[in-house]
Amino acid sequence: MNEEQLVRAVARGDRAAFEELYRRTSPWLAVRLRRRCADEQVVAEVMQETYLAVWRAAGSFAGAAVDGTAVGWLWTIAARRLVDAFRRRAHQALPLPAAGTAPAAEDEALAGALGDDVGGALRDLAPELRQVLQAMVLDGLTVRETAVLLGVPEGTVKTRARRARIAMREALS
Length: 173
Fold this sequence. Notes:
Elements: H1 3-11, H2 15-36, H3 40-57, H4 70-91, H5 105-113, H6 116-124, H7 127-138, H8 143-150, H9 154-172
Helix pairs in contact: 1-2, 2-3, 3-4, 4-8, 5-6, 6-9, 7-8, 7-9, 8-9
């Protein structure tokens, strides 16, 4: 069974399918969350909230009918839960932990999959521009969610997104 079939089985209440989905996706999801948040407690809470949401909302997964994947759907849930966790922390006036700066394997794979030109252009972007592109384009977050995730003002996100688009356009022309 692929991940989409597992989600559909979870929607029917299949606990074994849920456990298999968790087994397949949780290591990848944890790594991706840790790239954005160094606080293990927050990552653990987001993981728990994400899989609880998956269990409860598996029936709402549209999948291939809207060109979506189960893994993409899962990441969207997790990214939104992470933004919510950052908002809670900001509301409680706790400092946000800094994310690591080492390039992630997913960044390397993405750059390779997009071809030499696009991959090279992505690698050449300043890290703060690449983070904005990743959050808004790849993760599908809004400007506000990206601002919360990265801990910068919305205007900064818009400026960085514009600078990233210009840099990519120049690099690819």
